[in-house]
Amino acid sequence: MNARADDDALSWSGDDDPTLDVGSEGAPTLPPGFTAVGRGSEARSDTPATEHPDTSASTPSAVAEDPPAPGAGNAALITVGVLGGVYLLYAIGWLVGGLRLQGRAQYLIADAMFQGSLWLAVLAPALWFGSVLLMTRSIRSWVRFAWLAAGVVLLLPWPFVMIGAVGQ
């Protein structure tokens, strides 16, 4: 350590703040209602332990409360993200396949009907993904993944598969 504090490489303004000194006797006291925790908290305790008894273990409501429900795990979040990417690719596949099919389908249906069905087909994967996530919020995760897997099978962009890059 250098003789001057300004020469130290890791010195910051406010390093001489007296509240940062945990081990000194002149450390500030805690406001009423706060309790020091952690290493050295016994030395910082301003009130005796009998004044603030531990009431969390003795109250029946603290014991009877249910623990918070765990959120989705990392694997579940990654799987939902991958399936969301698959649904995005499906929407792109429906768009590309439908636009390539447009010239061949004009003799079967009117152009307005084709445009409406094309955009419904493009929106179908996003609608399926969003509705499954919305409707299975409070259901077990395997049910959510079963519905997402069913959508992967049912919403396969057949125009892209048959006429697109694969079918040529």
Describe it.
There is one protein chain. The protein is elongated. Helix 3 (74-105) packs antiparallel against helix 4 (111-135), helix 3 runs parallel beside helix 5 and helix 4 packs antiparallel against helix 5. It contains 6 helices and no strands. With 168 residues, the protein is mainly α.
Strand content: under 5%
Look at the structure and give the mean pLDDT. Answer: 75
Sum up the overall morphology in one term: elongated
Number of helices: 6
First and last CA, distance: 74 Å
Structural class determined from secondary elements: mainly alpha
Largest sheet: none
State the helical fraction. Answer: 40-55%
- Return the string of H and E elements: HHHHHH
Q: Low-confidence stretches at least 5 residues in length (pLDDT < 50)?
A: none
How many strands appear in the DSSP assignment? 0
